[in-house]
Design brief:
Length: 219
């Protein structure tokens, strides 16, 4: 036994107890009830990633104003819902689902760490939420070009993609009235809001929507 302990230590191999995972997770593992929560608590690596995500979220909430805080709470709740749907879909084997759960949690923590809480003065930039990305930038002619790439992040049941020129009404608002529209982008402090149900069955014939709040990342 002593030989095994010495060898394992030398090789960097460690055994983790359930108590260690319980301490590392971002929630109380004693109260884990869903299949996803139990999987997180059963894996020290995933539990640690969940803890990092929770710490990033808590730090972000503390720095956010009231409007941003509310939008972040909704987005985080959507993430938890999508995370659980993806893991509990059983569309792949357990090992693949666990790896995906780890990747999804680590990427969420990174995303939360990149969100800017400062009020924006321009529509230009990279804006993200749990569903995907909205990118706005000026072309050589000074026109505002917008790319939207959002989708069902749990099982891929719908996708909304758009690229086009929007008419900029002001520094904080732009509109598109072509096929699939109307599409409106509104800047509200640190949030980019799309109020119209763009990409649903009433516009592009899709099944999802690009409507919602997006957060500036990378700046």
């Amino acid at each position: 036994m002593k030989y095994c302990l010495a060898l394992c230590t030398a090789l960097g191999i460690y055994a983790f107890s359930p108590a260690q995972a319980l301490e590392q997770a971002g929630f109380d593992c004693a109260k884990a009830s869903t299949e996803t929560e139990k999987a997180i608590c059963a894996s020290p690596e995933i539990a640690e990633a969940d803890r990092a995500m929770s710490l990033a979220y808590e730090a972000l909430i503390k720095r956010a104003d009231a409007a941003l805080k509310q939008a972040l709470k909704v987005d985080q709740a959507d993430f938890i819902k999508l995370r659980d749907q993806a893991f509990e879909s059983h569309l792949s084997n357990a090992a693949v689902r666990q790896e995906s759960l780890l990747d999804r949690t680590e990427m969420r923590a990174e995303f939360l760490n990149w969100i800017s809480v400062a009020d924006s003065t321009s529509l230009e930039g990279n804006w993200r939420n749990v569903w995907g990305l909205v990118k706005a930038e000026k072309n050589a002619s000074g026109k505002l070009i917008v790319n939207i790439d959002v989708a069902d992040q749990a099982n891929g049941s719908w996708v909304c993609s758009f690229e086009g020129e929007l008419e900029q009404k002001s520094a904080t608002e732009a509109k598109f009235k072509g096929e699939g529209g109307p599409l409106t982008l509104k800047l509200q402090g640190a949030i980019l809001n799309i109020p119209t149900p763009f990409c649903d069955e009433t516009t592009t014939g899709g099944f999802g929507t690009a409507a919602g709040n997006y957060f500036r990342v990378g700046q």
